[in-house]
Amino acid sequence: MSNKREASRVAMQNSQDSTSMNRRHWLHSTTNGLGGIFLASMLAQESSPIVQAGDSSGLHFPAKAKRVIFLFMHGGPSHVDTFDYKPQLAIDDGKPLPFDKPRVQFSQTGNLLKSPWGFKQYGESGAWVSDLFPEIGSCADEITFVKSMHGSNEAHGGALLKIHTGSDTFVRPSMGAWVSYGLGSENQNLPSFITINPTLGHGGVQNFGSAFLPAEHQATRIGSSRADMKSATIANLKNAITSSSDLRQQMDLAQNWNRSHLARNGATHLLDSRIQSMELAFRMQTEAPGVLDTSGETEATLRLYGIDNAKTENFGRQCLLARRMSEAGVRFVQVSHSYWDQHEQLKEKHEELAFEVDRPIAGLLKDLKARGLLEDTLVIWGAEFGRTPTAQGKNGRDHNPHAFTYWMAGGGVKKGISYGETDEYGFYARQDRVHVHDFHATLLHLLGLDHERLIYRYGGRDFRLTDLYGRVVHEIIG
After folding, report:
1. Strand partners, 74
2. What is the domain range of residue 140?
3. Is residue 252 part of a domain?
4. Is 452 a member of any domain?
5. How crowded is residue 133: how many other Cβ atoms within 10 Å of its Cβ?
6. Which 3 state secondary structure label does DSSP give 157?
7. Is 130 within the bounds of a domain?
């Protein structure tokens, strides 16, 4: 009798070993392909109970914008050298700042430093724009300049996290992930959140991650900081070894395992995200390559974005991809440009960096308008903070989270206005101040989402992008 039981046990063990070997063999054979990349990384995680979300299905009120393009200038361009004209700064050049500097500063700075560039008024609005940005200046009548932004962190890492997630101290979902969670995608064959050439430092993937939101809401990345856009693509988009039909069979097998696990053990947050991510990854193979392929664009369009110039080509391609992604139904596209951190060589480096982005950004605005997309596409330009009007060394400026400029165009904002003011030198936001939480609340409002009702329950409390704060800046909404 014992021999029979032993034989039965051995047979069962052999069967289990065989199943395990087959499973491992299948995983190994697919790790070079799209399905395998997603599956191998996701199966390595522990399952956890699904977290119930708040009532975020559908809009809370009529939306003015359907999608967002966020042009992020990593490093912090100087607002007093770009869009916040301060004639008093030129008058008092070289003099001490006549009021107290912040108690906490990133570094020590000296006396006032005038801008190396002139400013001109543009359009019917008469907006003052630096000579760094003549092309964007030509679009001034489409733009709302918010000149009284302020944050709470003097360091790049904390400031980037604050702008992107609303928190500089805890891991939180990024604003693109919140938008994806609240609205989903307009195109089920593409991700709802794309980030192009993001920095992998200063908070890294947290700046475009989903944190405790379901994983399908994290960004799909194209390249990283200043990568060459000529051959830009989504990693592992195509499997050069396995045919689409075979890959579909492999996916079905994996999904059957996953769904069987769900049936036996109940829904889990991570496992449900695995299923959704794997299905999206498979569907992306049919549509994403066409969206990424810009070979069909006209010569006139390529010139509009500056793709005919070696210095503007790379960022021009990023902006063109952003337009194509938005046009195809991607809900939130972030385009990043580095590295605007001029503690020295302010004139040389700001001039170089501004030239790289000026024409492509203006081209994006003009192209969106010509295609009828600007009305419901919210374009945002900004960084993690501004810079001091006082000098660091002979030709530099330090970090300044106490005042900086953002601008927005399209997507329901008023055209050709400036909102808020800084002091006479641009050190502090003084009038109609807009905190980062207010910016996030306004962004969500334009998309039809109430920032106080877009919530997600996790760890025993309700979370939102604006935490416990935030005021919608109705004054800039058209």
Report:
1. 338
2. 67-234+270-476
3. no
4. yes
5. 26
6. helix
7. yes
C-beta separation of 122 from 135 below 8 A: no
**Phi and psi based region of residue 28 (left: phi greater than 0; alpha: psi -120 to 50; beta: remaining):** alpha
Tens of pLDDT, residues 128-147: 999 999 999 999 999 999 99
- Domain for residue 218, yes or no? yes
Element (H, E) at 196: strand 193-196
- Cβ atoms of residues 123 and 169 within 8 Å: no
Ramachandran category for residue 56: left, alpha or beta (phi over 0 → left; psi -120 to 50 → alpha): alpha
- Cα angle 373-376-378, degrees, rounded to a multiple of 5: 100
Cβ pair 362, 318 in contact under 8 A: no
The Cα–Cα gap between 170 and 26 comes to 38
- Predicted TM-score (pTM) of the model is 0.85
CATH code for the domain in which residue 140 is found: 3.40.720.10
Quote the number of domains for the chain. 1
Instruction: Quick: pLDDT tens for 201-245.
Output: 999 999 999 999 988 899 999 998 889 999 888 887 776 677 677
Q: Kindly report the backbone phi and psi dihedral angles of residue 171, in degrees, each rounded to the nearest multiple of 5, phi listed first.
A: -75, 120
What radius of gyration do the chain's Cα atoms show? 25
Q: Which two tokens stand for residue 390?
A: 């006082």
Amino acid at 224: S
**Amino acid identity at 8:** S
Q: Which residue has the tokens 């024409």?
A: 359
Q: At 57, list the tokens.
A: 């299905």
Residue 40: which of 180, 196, 174, 236 has the closest Cα?
236
- What is residue 49's DSSP assignment? B
